[in-house]
Amino acid sequence: MPDTSPFAIPGPELWSLLGWSPDTNQLQQLVDLQNLLQDWNSRVNLTRLVQGEDFWIAQILDSLWPLLPELKSPDTPRRCIDVGTGGGFPGLAVAIALPGAELTLVDSVGRKTAAVAAMAKSLGLSNRVLVRTERVERTGQDPSCRGCFDLAMARAVGAAPVVAEYLVPLLRQSGEALLYRGRWNETDEAELQTALKLLKARSLSLQRLELPCQRGVRTLIRLGPEAATPRIYPRATGLPGKMPLGVQADDSRS
After folding, report:
1. What's the whole-model pTM score?
2. Cβ atoms of residues 102 and 116 within 8 Å
3. Angle at which helices 186-199 and 160-167 pack, to 10 degrees?
4. Domains (ranges, CATH) in the chain?
5. Which residues contact 215 (CB under 8 A, 6 or more apart)?
6. Mean pLDDT of the chain
7. Is pLDDT of 88 > 50?
8. Do 242 and 167 meet the contact criterion of CB atoms below 8 Å apart?
9. Cα separation of 240 and 88, whole Å?
10. Which of 77, 118, 136, 158 has the maximum number of C-beta atoms within 10 A of its C-beta?
11. Looking at residue 1, what is its pLDDT?
12. What number is the average pLDDT over the span 131-160?
């Protein structure tokens, strides 16, 4: 049965809800991205969200709504990094929407990064999109990445304290980390705040959006550094996930 939802296509309902609309070239790139994703997904299991409102709500809207402040100045030069990019989101959508930005997309799964790099090339984004195949713990300790980014973001990667440990070390002093979350409660907040104290960072803002078509509540937490991140963070590969900062009482003695 055809998808008759107004959000099954990139129409005015979608852009009105987002508070931003693409120009003609950006719209074509987004449509091309959907087609490329469908093609690559038939060969490499990237995501199930490739059709109709699955793509336009759960991929495009959900990737871009946290960046509304940046979408107001899309040509501003920015260095951005997407950690755990998977099938290329939010990174590829952000690269299309912010033509002034340079994007680094990180994932540890080679078949996914190969597909994402190929899609970026097909979209004409290779000059602004760099794809790295590695664990983010290594990225965060690499001098070419540590303390270098204006925006660091991650969607559907792990618990908030884990993601904070991944992202905060990547930020320059004026940079911001964007934590894409679902529902958010007091326990989540308390665990994140514990982690931020260790990372020498703080919460800047919290926003919520209810996605249309009963797609659920989304929460965005913006973080910023208060001082240089201690050199021990991010910790060795696998430790942030096994021993989240906001949960382990003895992490402060690491």
Report:
1. 0.93
2. no
3. 30
4. 12-253 (3.40.50.150)
5. 53, 57, 58, 62
6. 93
7. yes
8. no
9. 23
10. 136
11. 45
12. 95
Q: Which are the contacts of 183, defined by CB distance < 8 A and separation ≥ 6?
A: 216, 217, 219
Structure tokens at 49: 């969200």
Burial of 204 per CB tally in 10 Å (0-12, 13-18, 19+): exposed
**Residue 23 per-residue DSSP state:** -
Q: Closest Cα to residue 82, out of 131, 147, 33, 40?
A: 131
H-helix segments, the chain: 12-18, 24-41, 52-55, 62-64, 68-71, 91-97, 110-122, 136-141, 160-167, 186-199, 239-242
Residue with tokens 């690499």: 142
Under 8 Å between Cβ of 88 and 109: no
With 80 as the cut, is the pLDDT of residue 246 above it?
Answer: no
Cα–Cα dist 171/150, whole Å: 6
Q: What is the pLDDT of residues 151-164, one digit of tens each?
A: 999 997 889 999 99
Give 189's contacts (C-beta < 8 A, 6+ positions apart).
none
- What percentage of residues in the chain have a pLDDT greater than 90? 86
- Residue 2 binned pLDDT confidence (cut-offs 50, 70, 90): low
pLDDT of residue 50: 84
Alpha helices in 98-236 (DSSP H): 110-122, 136-141, 160-167, 186-199
Q: Which amino acid is at 157?
A: V
